[in-house]
Amino acid sequence: MTQPATRRATYDDLHGSDDFRDLRSRYRRFAIPWTIAFFCWYMLYVVCSNWAPGFMGTDIVGNINVALVFGLLQFVSTFLIAWLYSRHANRELDPLAARLDERYEEAAR
Amino acid sequence: MSASTYLAQGQTHQALTATLFVAVVLITVGITFWASRQTRTATDYYAGGRSFSGAQNGLAVSGDYMSAASFLGISGAIALYGYDGFLYSIGFLVAWLIALLLVAELLRNSGRYTMADQLAYRMKQTPVRTAAATSTVVVSIFYLLAQMVGAGALVTLLLGVTDESARNWVIVGVGLLMIFYVTVGGMKGTTWVQIVKAVMLMGGTVLITFLVLLHFNFNISEMLGAAVQNTGKPDFLDPGLRYGASTTTKLDFLSLSLALVLGTAGLPHILIRFYTVPTAKTARTSVLWAIALIGTFYLMTLVLGFGAAALLDTTSEDSQVAASAGNLASPLLAEEVGGGAGSLGGAVLLALISAVAFATILAVVAGLTLASASSVAHDIYASVIKKGQATEKQEVNVARGAAFGIGFIAIMLAIPAQKLNIAFLVALAFAVAASANLPSLLYNLFWRRFNTRGAVWSIYGGLISSVGLVIFSPVVSGKVDPDTGGSLSLFGLGTDFHWFPLENPGLVSIPIGFLLGYLGTITSKETASEDRFNELEVRALTGAGSEKAITH
């Protein structure tokens, strides 16, 4: 491995590159809004369970009520967001990250 | 059914159960010995050589996460409180999105063996490692208690043991086994134990779920109706049976929900799992596998819980489900759908599901002990005490010694904690993790200005406030059963020093953790941590310079 000072310079150099800025903003533009979205959606569910029992207790089909369906939708949204993120990361993030990692390895040699 | 007839019919299943328990122990001990031969370096011991695949680690993550709290605790909570028990499943699953989107990959790239590594990357070693190691050990011990209480409850049922000292010996036995797994097998052994356990648990749960659904001709609505009828509680399917009584209980539920969703990504034994894979991409694959497995599993706990409410006695005075705070609902349900008490099918299924639960407990306690022992050895011994001068061999030996110490403490604390619901105990561990660990993890990865004082304040602030509030909550003293007049707290009647109304501290302690992290940061003039942020950020997002897998 190279000296700490050169290694540091490599990191600073990569940090300033267009590729890195692009990678960071692609990552953040996905991760942060989706985190806020699922968190609010989950809290909505929690608040309804607590303070809207009448609504949550409404039967939809047979003994299956709104509360149960709302709960199951939390499962669906979790699976969906996980799938979306995996697709986003494979297409938009991984190639850029690999390119930057390669540049780091070259500089370290 | 009275206890004596139960014991008389119990001979078959007890012999069978004992055999299966022994088989579980032998298989896991075998794996551990095999793994110990593959363990040569510190990276092997702490991170399994970073050579597991995404699918393998995904199974292991699920194995670590689907503890006795999920398998026994949640289905039990649903069996007793109906819909309100289901709320646990949802929080436990949704929480994985934080791990997936914000933590797993970044942590894999920036850390090495423990949760503290990622903070120590740009901060002063001694204070942040001491703080992070302390909270790792505290969270893990809370979680360990829950698992060991589960082991005690299981054995009470299965071996017909009602004697208190015999039950305590079981807890001691589980403790000794977990010390063995961790000292001998390290991360490689522990991971394989998790994988085997996850497969057993999924298999057992699918089987029982199928049998329950078969019983109701795959008509979920009919099962739910039967649950309402059998429990005699018309509101059984609506939210509020457990938490809807008053504003205090509603706030308690809000507090619990926050702790569940924010706690997962701060659990040390889960976080260190991301170091066992070679790249950030495989860390992501692990979480995706984990979400699929855990989600499917929690959907099945819904059937187990409502099935138990529909088919078992959960309300009468000598209900075994109620007496165990719900913890025995799943095994008893297995017996019921296998043909009922006294039948061969019932005995076989009861023994099988109990063995699965036993394997679950053994695997999770091993994972927890490893996380805390690693932190004691790597953070406290190697970095704080030896200032990085310890050899790998010394470090690993200290980790093994620490496993003994932590195992001993957990055994001593588990014995008095036996009357608390397991899912509930785990929720406390989540609250501590969310308050003490998550704020510093997120600040460190996303806030350039964050520094040593901020990290230390947020960890200790979250830790002290969450544990402190639990001590002064109704969990520890002053909660009285309105029906029987008995104590529902750790301390008996007559001792009451509680002043905090909520049972889960998250609602107060999580904001304290975040707030102190902010205040500590802005009042400190340290600049070194800011200077190293570029390095951390590049490394976290690209994997440049991250720890590589080792091949033998």
Provide tags for this entry.
heterodimer, A: 109 residues, mainly alpha, 2 strands, 5% strand, B: 552 residues, Sodium/glucose cotransporter, 23 helices, globular, disordered N terminus
CATH superfamily of chain B: Sodium/glucose cotransporter
User: Segments of chain B where pLDDT lies below 50 for 5+ residues?
Assistant: 1-8
Return Rg of chain B in Å: 23 Å
Helix content of chain A: over 70%
Radius of gyration of chain A in whole Å, from Cα? 22 Å
Separate helix tally of chain B:
23
Instruction: Kindly give the count of domains of chain A.
Output: 1
Question: What oligomeric assembly is this protein in?
Answer: heterodimer
**Tell me, what's the shape of chain B?**
globular
Explain briefly what this protein structure is.
The complex is a heterodimer of chains A (109) and B (552). Chain A is mainly α and 109 residues long.
Describe this structure in words.
The complex is a heterodimer of chains A (109) and B (552). With 109 residues, chain A is mainly α. Chain A has one domain. Chain A contains 4 helices and 2 strands, in the order αααββα. In chain A, strands 1-2 form a two-stranded antiparallel ribbon. Chain B has 552 residues and is an all-alpha fold. Chain B has one domain: Up-down Bundle (Sodium/glucose cotransporter). In chain B, 73% of the residues lie in helices and 0% in strands. Chain B contains 23 helices and no strands. In chain B, helix 8 runs antiparallel to helix 18 and helix 9 crosses helix 13. The longest helix of chain B is centred in the middle third of the chain and has 52 residues. Chains A and B meet through helix 1, helix 2, strand 2 and helix 4 of A and helix 5, helix 6, helix 10, helix 11 and helix 13 of B.
